């Protein structure tokens, strides 16, 4: 396993290096593509420049040829001039016609010369500009050549480093391959051994399956014969069975009930504040009861609002009773939640209160809209509150319907199916969220209304404080309802997990009477289990147990063996004490008999022989045998052999033996024989106990060895699977690395070829530029 972990770490490192090299390869590919594009553009520019240079060279060649022709003609003309001047000096008197012709020729020649000179100047200027452009191009190309050479050197260094890395990785992989081949050979040998072991285990498994099948048939036949009926088939009988007590579920449910009780208490306080502050608002606005009489409608409305505590307080009490009914020892389901019915009744009474005050509240808002102090914006806010109050009563009606449906299984289980109650819980969650949305709208509209009422000229400080109190109570109400909605939606799965304790396939609820019987049976079972509980003995400390574990497993004298030895030794001691008491009684009886016999022997006479015989017949048969042996011993030597031992007595007819010494001898012989036999017996018992303890320890060792064998076979199977998987991965990685190396080598070869081509092209460009520069210099 350690080798596999090392291989995995190596493969991970190789994969990381491969990813890095792949990223570098992509960067190099991009650089090579850019360089190829730049080289192509440079080639095109060089072609264009070559063409322009060739054109200029042709023009230069033609110009030089023309210049040479013109120079020759100028020389000829100068020679002709010189000849003509010499002739003119000789023949000063030449004809006017020849002088006029020579002047005309001179003017023509002068004009041609001026034109040629101007053209020569223009060509010199063009040549100078072309030479400057050529020098600039040569400098740019040289700078680009230097950059390309540096890039090529860097690329070559990168390529060399990559080749070194790849060679190192190939060597490492070859080394790992050799190691893995050796490991694979060893693992193949182990696999062969494991196959043999698996065959043996399969044979054992077949035998076990056969034995278990026979046992199963026997147990099924016993169940069919002994069990009269299965009470789980019918819902009525199964309802009386006590379910498995889920303490964690009960504690979670009690915790949830405590949270719900806290939320309901916050809701009750918010509702009380809202109704009381609404009563104060009705008596203040639009007409203050302290200065003027309010309308009879508002009087009736305030009278009803004054009774809100008698309807709101029972909600908290009902939730408190429901929380107290959920304990750790009970089974809390819908059939046993009897207090949920009382909470539903309190909610229905509060709903009746809301229905009773709803028309008065709506009429009060309408009356407020009709007053002269009410503006258009305030009237719009009042109408929005008019609609919100209707929605609030409708939401309470929905909640009452759903909670009364939840209370039905504890009173009328036949009126609903168990499968429908998950939808009831989801509808309660949705209605609570709707309740929260309505209260948010009410708080928003009340805040807008309060700001508008403060702008009324007749607004008093009492009205402002009352509006602030109403807003705070509405905000508290929205917060409480939001907490309840989030709490119910978060724990919806827990509520719908176990609706009833009946069979899983059943669709109907269990009757409340069977639920009560089940709870009584549960209490009886709990009382019986408590009566069976006994205080546990002090356990061994954990550190001491850990220290003695190996000793207890490997030692031949384990704690159980020692306890059995102690028990057996105690039993032996008790048996030996019983035998001791028995032998003490026998010794006392023997002493009594000896005393009687001594007295009879002392006082016996020859005439009283018959009487002594009669008295001896009354004694036990053992005593008669002893007397007969004594009489015989008087006459002749006797040699007695028995399981007790061997005793030889020689007597003389003339001399009678001493009875007391003979009895002491017999007694001492018996006592020595008993001691010897008891020592042999104790030795045999101790050896048997020792062998028994060794056998138990060997059996435990054998069981532990079998367990370790099973665990090792499983580990070996996993190791073989891992080895095969690693071999496959190694082969795939090797192939991938070889493919990548081949691709990289091909790519490097192509890059080298392109670089060599670029170098050759640059060298040719240098040669051509040098030749052009030499030609220009020569010109």
UniProtKB/TrEMBL annotation:
Keywords linked to the UniProt accession: Coiled coil, Endosome, RNA-binding
Molecular function, one GO term: RNA binding
Segments forming a coiled coil: 145-211, 695-736
Domain of life: Eukaryota
Transmembrane segments: none
SMART domains: KLRAQ
Comp. bias (Low complexity): 96-105
Cellular compartment(s): Early endosome
UniProt feature, compositional bias: Basic and acidic residues: 624-637
Protein phosphatase 1 regulatory subunit 21 N-terminal domain boundaries: 12-113
Main localization (coarse): other
Stretches for region Disordered: 85-105, 603-637, 753-779
Name by which UniProt lists this protein: Protein phosphatase 1 regulatory subunit 21
Organism of provenance: Nothoprocta perdicaria (Chilean tinamou)
């Amino acid at each position: 396993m350690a080798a596999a972990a090392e291989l995995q770490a190596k493969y991970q490192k190789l994969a990381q290096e491969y990813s890095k090299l792949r990223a570098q390869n992509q960067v190099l590919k991009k650089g090579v593509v850019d360089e190829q594009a730049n080289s192509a553009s440079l080639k095109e520019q060089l072609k264009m420049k070559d063409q322009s240079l060739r054109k200029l060279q042709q023009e230069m060649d033609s110009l030089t040829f023309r210049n040479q022709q013109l120079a020759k003609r100028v020389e000829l003309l100068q020679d002709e001039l010189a000849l003509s001047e010499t002739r003119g000096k000789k023949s000063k008197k030449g004809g006017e016609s020849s002088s006029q012709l020579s002047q005309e020729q001179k003017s023509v020649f002068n004009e041609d010369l001026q034109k040629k000179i101007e053209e020569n100047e223009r060509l010199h200027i063009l040549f100078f500009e072309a030479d400057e452009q050529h020098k600039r191009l040569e400098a740019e190309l040289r700078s680009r050549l230097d950059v390309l050479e540096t890039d090529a050197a860097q690329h070559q260094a990168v390529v060399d480093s990559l080749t070194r890395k790849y060679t190192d990785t190939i060597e490492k992989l070859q080394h790992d391959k050799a190691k893995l081949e050796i490991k694979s050979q060893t693992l193949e040998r182990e696999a062969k051994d494991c196959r043999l072991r698996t065959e043996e285990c399969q044979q054992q498994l077949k035998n076990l399956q056969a034995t278990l099948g026979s046992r199963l048939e026997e147990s099924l036949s016993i169940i069919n014969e002994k069990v009269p009926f299965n009470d789980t088939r019918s819902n009525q009988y199964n309802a009386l069975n006590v379910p498995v007590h889920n303490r964690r579920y009960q504690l979670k449910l009690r915790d949830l009930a405590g949270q719900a009780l806290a939320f309901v208490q916050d809701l009750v306080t918010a509702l009380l504040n809202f109704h009381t502050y609404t009563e104060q608002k009705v008596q203040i606005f639009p007409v203050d009861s302290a200065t003027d009489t309010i309308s009879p409608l508002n009087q009736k409305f305030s009278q009803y609002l004054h009774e809100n505590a008698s309807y709101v307080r029972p909600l908290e009490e009902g939730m408190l009773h429901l929380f107290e009914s959920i304990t750790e020892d009970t089974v809390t389901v819908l059939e046993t939640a009897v207090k949920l019915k009382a909470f539903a009744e309190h909610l229905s009474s509060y709903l009746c209160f809301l229905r009773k005050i709803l028309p008065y509240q709506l009429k009060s808002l309408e009356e407020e809209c009709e007053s002269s102090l009410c503006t258009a914006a305030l009237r719009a806010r009042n109408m929005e509150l008019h609609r919100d109050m209707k929605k609030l009563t409708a939401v309470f009606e929905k909640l009452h319907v759903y909670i009364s449906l939840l209370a039905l299984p504890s009173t009328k289980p036949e009126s609903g199916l168990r499968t429908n109650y998950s939808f009831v819980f989801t509808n309660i969650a949705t209605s609570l969220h709707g309740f929260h949305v309505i209260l948010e709208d009410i708080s928003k509209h009340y805040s807008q209304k309060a700001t508008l009422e403060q702008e009324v000229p007749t607004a008093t400080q009492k009205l402002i404080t009352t509006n602030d109190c109403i807003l705070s109570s509405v905000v508290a109400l929205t917060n409480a309802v939001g907490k309840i909605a989030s709490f119910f939606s978060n724990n919806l799965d827990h509520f719908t997990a176990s609706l009833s304790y009946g069979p899983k396939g059943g669709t109907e609820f269990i009757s409340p009477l069977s639920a009560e019987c089940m709870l009584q049976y549960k209490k009886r079972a709990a009382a019986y289990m408590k009566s069976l509980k006994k205080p546990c003995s002090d356990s061994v400390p954990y550190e001491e147990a850990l220290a003695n574990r190996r000793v207890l497993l490997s030692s031949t004298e384990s704690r159980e063996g020692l306890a059995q030895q102690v028990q057996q030794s105690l039993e032996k001691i008790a048996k030996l004490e019983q035998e001791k008491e028995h032998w003490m009684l026998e010794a006392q009886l023997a002493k009594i008999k000896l005393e009687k016999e001594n007295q009879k022997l002392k006082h016996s006479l020859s005439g009283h022989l018959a009487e002594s015989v009669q008295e001896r017949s009354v004694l036990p048969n053992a005593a008669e045998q002893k007397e007969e042996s004594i009489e015989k011993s008087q006459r002749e030597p006797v040699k007695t052999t028995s399981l007790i031992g061997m005793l030889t007595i020689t007597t003389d007819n003339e001399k009678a033996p001493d009875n007391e010494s003979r009895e002491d001898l017999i007694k001492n012989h018996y006592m020595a024989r008993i001691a010897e036999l008891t020592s042999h017996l104790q030795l045999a018992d101790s050896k048997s106990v020792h062998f028994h303890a060794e056998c138990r320890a060997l059996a435990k060792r054998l069981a532990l060895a079998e367990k370790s064998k099973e665990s090792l076979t499983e580990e070996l199977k996993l190791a073989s699977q891992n080895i095969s998987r690693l071999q496959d991965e190694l082969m795939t990685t090797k192939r991938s690395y070889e493919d990548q190396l081949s691709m990289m080598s091909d790519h490097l070869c192509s890059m080298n070829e392109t670089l060599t081509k670029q170098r050759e092209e640059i060298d040719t460009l240098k040669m051509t530029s040098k030749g052009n520069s030499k030609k220009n210099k020569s010109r």
